[in-house]
């Protein structure tokens, strides 16, 4: 009876606690918002390519305060926030504003499971925007700068044995008043610039590892020509080769290869008769990595996966062309901003995030250009599983908006095609390049990513060809789009123009680079019942007011792409865009994901001609 009463009280407490949270504001929500609770929010394992069995999710309700930077940590917090949604979002339950002189404080408690007592505890943050300091039980355990890359701290020595542990996080975010990489965030929001994102916006979690040593990461490099996968298991410390890693490769449940690799050394594994990863057949191999110490004891194990695929340039019909697995493949996809009306940078759920990719695939696209935003690992996982090629942009920055907030941002003014690159401060360049390398490091193993895009339309663009070479040297397995649109330079693997005119411009053919259209279309169709803010200017590059007009305009532009592919050597094109975003109504789907503006089957039928030789 006592056990039942305790259980009942606990359930009552949890239910009452959960009822405190609800989405903030009256702006549009997606259908997935109604399914969210503090108990079920983003419970999926956040790193599908590096998965351990022992972990704890810390998403849910935290305490929060927004104070001026000159004030100390609050003794009493202002309210509760639903992590991992940012402060400005509806789903956070706050929908507040964070100014450049503000600081966000987060606080929660947690308990360590008893079976973790002899292990080290790693605290992981998948993404926090922007400058973060973390405290455990009152002690600073570490700090990090960057809005789109994950970071971790070993908090073992800061834990106090049994019972509650206190976790405090403070975050500064200069938003668009700073020079940091931030993509399309702007204060105030207008036009092609969207509501800022501040604070925690991806999963917070803990895992256990051996205090002796553990696998920090693994670099995987497939080679379809040699029929091998190069595996480099990297430990958290430099150890002698007596520490071994057993690598087991399997496909569809059957073991394909098994080998032993010294720690921190690259090992080649033969993959006989490899099942290639492609858009039509996204075959994935499972990879198990087990770390053994000098005594032969297993001290760590992670599960991963990889795809056997190759992206390259090749000669096709007299021009350079994009190749996949040594075959010419026309790449066609939407510009994807990755913004949500209720979660902003954070999709309401994993299911919602997957929906966008699935609909893109059903529409007959084989590629997505992820536009100046880096998604959670699980987004790339779904692209890997579904067979979706990805052009991954680096979030732009390094231009400061005047502090009045009324002027148009300087980076709206495009750098002239033949003009000089911007002059940027050394510290800004160093931070940009650090975050660029981190983006590549974190997502290196994802087979879906086929191209890196360091710069877009001159925004924060500097020493373009040096950066392009740096990226190519850092990752020679993928193509580099030195700059997409406007401020073009004679470097990189593709020649990329943007063309939003009704008559689509033709990119010049090149003997050493593939010709692509990095953005075109942008046809607006506002649907009155599905607008984020009916009172604002809702716009497209050309705007129509019926489904028929939209379809006719789309077909007219699309047919020009088809003709360029047939006669001008065009290798790829990116249509703007997947969904409406705030005041932009040029999406194929409304911002709330409720209305698909052109029938899916019609789009699929249209697009199929692009993949026929």
UniProtKB/TrEMBL annotation:
Belongs to the glycosyl hydrolase 2 family. Keywords: Glycosidase, Hydrolase, Signal. Residues 351-487 form the Glycoside hydrolase family 2 catalytic domain. Residues 1-20 form the signal peptide. InterPro entries: Beta-gal/glucu_dom_sf (IPR036156), Galactose-bd-like_sf (IPR008979), GH (IPR017853), GH2_Domain-Containing (IPR051913), Glyco_hydro_2_cat (IPR006103), Glyco_hydro_2_N (IPR006104), Ig-like_fold (IPR013783), Ig-like_GH2 (IPR006102). GO terms for biological process: carbohydrate metabolic process. Residues 246-309 form the Glycoside hydrolase family 2 immunoglobulin-like beta-sandwich domain. This is Glycoside hydrolase family 2. Residues 103-177 form the Glycosyl hydrolases family 2 sugar binding domain.
């Amino acid at each position: 009876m006592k056990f039942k009463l305790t259980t009942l009280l606990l359930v009552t407490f949890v239910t009452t606690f959960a009822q405190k949270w609800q989405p903030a504001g009256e702006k549009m929500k997606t259908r997935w918002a109604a399914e969210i609770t503090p108990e079920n929010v983003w419970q999926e394992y956040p790193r599908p390519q590096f998965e351990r069995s022992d972990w704890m999710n810390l998403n849910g309700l935290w305490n929060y305060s927004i104070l001026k930077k000159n004030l100390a940590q609050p003794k009493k917090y202002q309210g509760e926030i639903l992590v991992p949604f940012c402060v400005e979002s509806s789903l956070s339950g706050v929908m507040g504003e964070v100014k450049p002189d503000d600081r966000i404080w987060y606080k929660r408690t947690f308990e360590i499971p008893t079976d973790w007592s002899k292990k080290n505890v790693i605290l992981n943050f998948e993404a926090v925007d922007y400058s973060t300091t973390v405290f455990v039980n009152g002690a600073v355990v570490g700090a990090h700068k960057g809005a789109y890359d994950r970071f971790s701290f070993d908090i073992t020595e800061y834990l106090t044995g049994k019972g509650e542990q206190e976790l405090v996080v403070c975050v500064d975010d200069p938003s668009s008043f700073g020079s940091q990489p931030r993509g399309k965030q702007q204060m105030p929001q207008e036009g092609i610039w969207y509501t800022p994102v501040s604070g925690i916006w991806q999963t917070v979690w803990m895992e256990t590892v051996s205090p002796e040593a553990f696998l920090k990461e693994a670099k995987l490099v497939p080679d379809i020509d040699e029929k091998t996968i190069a595996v480099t298991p990297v430990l958290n410390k430099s150890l002698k080769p007596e520490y071994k890693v057993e690598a087991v490769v399997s496909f569809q449940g059957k073991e394909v290869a098994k080998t032993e690799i010294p720690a921190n050394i690259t090992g080649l594994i033969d993959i006989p008769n490899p099942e290639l990863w492609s858009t039509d057949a996204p075959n994935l191999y499972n990879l198990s990595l087990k770390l053994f110490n000098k005594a032969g004891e297993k001290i760590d194990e992670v599960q991963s996966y990889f795809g056997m695929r190759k992206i390259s340039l090749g000669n096709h019909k007299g021009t350079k062309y994009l190749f996949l697995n040594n075959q010419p493949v026309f790449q066609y996809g939407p510009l994807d901003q990755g913004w949500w009306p209720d979660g902003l940078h954070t999709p309401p759920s994993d299911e919602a995030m997957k929906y966008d990719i699935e609909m893109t695939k059903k529409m007959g696209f084989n590629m997505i250009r992820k536009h100046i935003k880096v998604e959670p690992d699980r987004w790339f996982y779904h692209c890997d599983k579904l067979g979706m090629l990805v052009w991954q942009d680096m979030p732009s920055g390094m231009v400061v908006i005047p502090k009045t907030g009324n002027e148009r941002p300087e980076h709206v003014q495009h750098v002239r095609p033949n003009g000089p690159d911007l002059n940027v401060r050394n510290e800004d360049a160093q931070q940009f390049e650090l975050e660029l390398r981190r983006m590549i490091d974190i997502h290196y193993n994802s087979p879906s990513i086929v191209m890196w895009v360091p710069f877009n339309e001159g925004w924060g663009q500097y020493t373009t060809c040096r950066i392009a070479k740096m990226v190519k040297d850092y990752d020679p397995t993928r193509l580099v789009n030195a700059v997409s649109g406007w401020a073009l330079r004679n470097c990189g693997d593709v020649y990329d123009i943007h063309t939003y005119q009704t008559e689509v411009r033709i990119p010049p053919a090149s003997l050493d680079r593939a010709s692509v259209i990095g953005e075109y279309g942008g046809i607006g169709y506002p649907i009155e019942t599905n607008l984020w803010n009916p009172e604002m200017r809702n716009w497209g590059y050309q705007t129509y007011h019926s489904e028929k007009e939209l379809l006719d305009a789309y077909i007219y532009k699309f047919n020009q792409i088809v003709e360029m592919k047939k006669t001008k050597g065009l290798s790829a094109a990116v249509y703007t865009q997947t969904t409406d975003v705030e005041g932009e109504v040029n999406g194929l789907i409304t911002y709330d994901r409720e209305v698909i503006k052109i029938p899916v089957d019609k789009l699929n039928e249209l697009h199929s001609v692009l993949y026929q030789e």
